[in-house]
Amino acid sequence: MPRVVVLTFVLMALICSEAPTARATDCDEAKVRVFLVDLAAGAPIAVLQSQEKGDPNAHEAIARWDAGVRPRAPERFDRKLQYGKGWKVVFSGTRVVIDASEVRLTTDGRLISEREGNIRLHLLSLALGAPVPGDVASDPDLALALRRRETGVTVGNLALFERSPSGALSRKGTARPVEGWQVNLSSDPGSTCYSEAHVRRILADIELGGPPDYYEGHPDEPGVGEALRRRAAGVRVMNLAGFERNIVKGKGWQVVHKRSHVPIDGTEVELR
Asked: In terms of domains, do 97 and 121 share one?
């Protein structure tokens, strides 16, 4: 059998090996993140569990929560009952409802470096009307931001921010400064929701000898792009010694518990 056909079968077997109540690829990443913040702010998980069967966003949020995924800096957020709207997730000490682009998860890790954050802030400042400084050569981050802008890269969530006359960047209507990771670019990967369990299985598969070149050739498959981004950022599997790759009858190559033919649940994979 040609290698490409075999590898296609391997990838599809991994993608299809989990059959959740609602398909994770149908979910909305923004809503999943807001659910996770809501849980961290004290929302009863039983309420979300009651929605899980028919709501892929609730299903994926619970799966990530059970896997230990949490919002970073949870003290920034709170839950408030708003008249006519029910419970909303807001910024602590305010009644300002959060935007999902401002939620950073523990799994986001080091995906945006300090330099990348600076480049995004430059692009945001320029998009909000800042003049281009005369001495661009002295700031390599600004030079790279200008180069990206010339190739058509734009800020995707520009409406969330504003620039003061002094040049300070903030969340619109507040005094909160903008952090680089909050700036979404048109060149960013799509916001398609991914299954956390599937991402972890792919990371385990690659570390156990799975074909990284094939995954790299299919970054648009559900969860593959996210797994590759985490791997490039240095994310690794902590409990790899408990797993191995094995051929499971009718399913092809699978990540299984060591010395067994029992496929793992992706949420069993611990990352660092």
From this structure: no
- Residue 125, classified by CB atoms within 10 Å of its CB into exposed (0-12), middle (13-18) or buried (19+), is buried
Contact 70, 40 (CB under 8 A): yes
Angle at 125 between CA 122 and CA 127, to 5 degrees: 110
Q: Give the whole-number percent of the chain exceeding pLDDT 90.
A: 25
pTM: 0.51
Instruction: List C-alpha distances in Å: 229 to 6, 16, 27, 28, 112.
Output: 24, 21, 20, 19, 10
CB atoms within 10 A of CB 91: 17
Contact 271, 69 (CB under 8 A): no
Chosen domain end from 65, 91, 107:
107
3-class DSSP state for residue 254? strand
Quickly list DSSP for 180-222: GGG--BTTSPP-B---HHHHHHHHHHHHTT--HHHHHT-TTST
Please give the Cα distance from 201 to 255 (Å, whole number).
Answer: 7
> How is residue 200 written in tokens?
């972890």
- Would you call 267 helix, strand, or coil by DSSP? helix
Tens of pLDDT along 36-89?
999 999 999 999 999 888 899 999 999 999 988 899 888 888 999 888 888 899
Same structural domain, 30 and 90: yes
Q: Which H or E run includes 39?
A: helix 29-40
DSSP summary character for residue 248: E
100 with 120, same domain: the answer is no
What is the pLDDT, as a whole number, of residue 16? 41
Domain with 255 in it: 196-268
Which of 74, 107, 140 is the C-terminal boundary of a domain?
Answer: 107
Question: Of all residues in the chain, what percent carry a pLDDT higher than 70?
Answer: 84
Domain contains 239: yes
